[in-house]
Specification:
alpha/beta; Rossmann fold; UDP-galactose 4-epimerase, domain 1; two-stranded parallel ribbon; globular; binds nicotinamide-adenine-dinucleotide
Length: about 300
């Protein structure tokens, strides 16, 4: 299969490409805005290009994918607040452009990265795909609109599609700069010999999923022979997550033996806008295409910390 990965120089994309190249012909299109050139795989076809560039559809046609995994995005919540126009352009118009270019190039499936952010502050946990969506920031709004744009663009084309709502993904190659995930930030601080900061009580929960599990979900869905977009419940939406709630304090404690750090973490005032609880039920992905998370937090933190510590 020929698989095109947008955002293949980023955190999730580069982990995916490194596994895919052994199994398929792989292409990457990435503008390197947050991704890194050293993440690019030497065996993959590649173009450094913005998905909004007018030459993008021709580049997709040149590679000629059977499937497109669309991971390129403006993926920072704070940046979505300071520049909501760019956030909407990349995430919504960009997803529409990717879907149209994929269909025009003859691809038969488009898998697009969505986010737990589409749900906002959950009324219940764990959240299912049919739970209410009420994003609380421009990033969540653009990811939700991107799901709709993907469905609108591919309706009636015969191209299968899915929007994968990732929970909090962590693992090697995550960027701890700016607003990286809490695991990346804790690992980077500990690896640099500094004491990490917990904001608020530490009782706020997240659903941490290892990047290797996310890669396995994408590959399982690429190989699925049915129609992802029509599966019940709630069609093309799939939670890719563990379904478990882990508090930030529990995360800090799980990291202690991995990093050999036993002093107290620093405590700072709670940050406005942080969701208090988060956990997504991923049983639909298991029922439809046979994927389930396999890597426990304890098992995933080892390779993650070692990558940050360059061990
Ligand atoms: N990491 C997480 O916890 C998480 C959670 C939920 C959803 N997601 C989504 O998963 C996807 C991948 O996230 P990530 O964590 O790997 O982020 P990332 O920032 O590491 O990767 C995004 C990649 O897309 C590229 N890119 C950005 N804008 C582009 C554009 N206009 N044209 C071409 N390339 C562009 C970047 O250079 C980068 O390499 C994103 O869609 C993100 O919103 C991530």
């Amino acid at each position: 299969m020929r698989v095109l990965v947008t955002g293949g120089a980023g955190f999730i994309g580069s982990n995916l490409v490194h596994v895919l190249v052994g199994q398929h012909e792989v292409g990457v299109i990435d503008d390197l805005s947050t991704g890194h050139a050293e993440n690019l795989h030497p065996s993959a076809w590649g173009r450094t290009m913005d998905i909004l560039d007018e030459r993008f559809p021709a580049a997709v046609a040149e590679f000629g994918p059977d499937a497109v995994v669309h991971l390129a995005a403006q993926s920072s919540v704070p940046r979505s607040i300071t520049d909501p126009v760019r956030d909407w352009a990349v995430n919504v118009d960009g997803t529409r452009t990717v879907a149209a270019a994929a269909a025009a190039a003859g691809a038969t499936r488009v898998l697009s990265a969505s986010s737990a952010a589409v749900y906002g502050e959950p009324a219940e946990v764990p959240l299912g795909e049919c739970s209410d969506t009420a994003p609380v920031n421009p990033y969540g709004s653009s990811k939700l609109a991107a799901e709709k744009a993907l469905a609108d663009e591919l309706a009636g084309t015969g191209v299968d599609f899915a929007s994968f709502r990732f929970s909090n993904v962590y693992g090697p190659r995550q960027d701890a700069a700016g607003e990286g995930g809490v695991v990346a930030i804790f690992c980077a601080e500990l690896a640099a010999g500094r004491t990490p900061v917990i904001y608020g009580s530490g009782e706020q929960t997240r659903d941490f999923i290892y990047v290797g599990d996310v890669v396995a979900a994408i590959i399982a869905s690429l190989e699925f022979t049915g129609t992802l977009s029509e599966a019940e419940p709630c069609g093309p939406a799939y939670n890719i997550s563990t379904g478990e709630e882990v508090s930030v304090t529990d995360l800090a404690n799980a990291l202690r033996p991995v990093a050999g750090f036993y002093a107290p973490f620093e405590i700072a005032r709670e940050r406005a806008g942080d969701v208090l609880r988060s956990s997504l039920d991923s049983r639909k992905a298991r029922a439809v295409f046979g994927w389930q998370p396999r890597v426990t937090l304890e098992a995933g933190l080892g390779p993650t910390y070692r990558w940050f510590a360059r061990l």
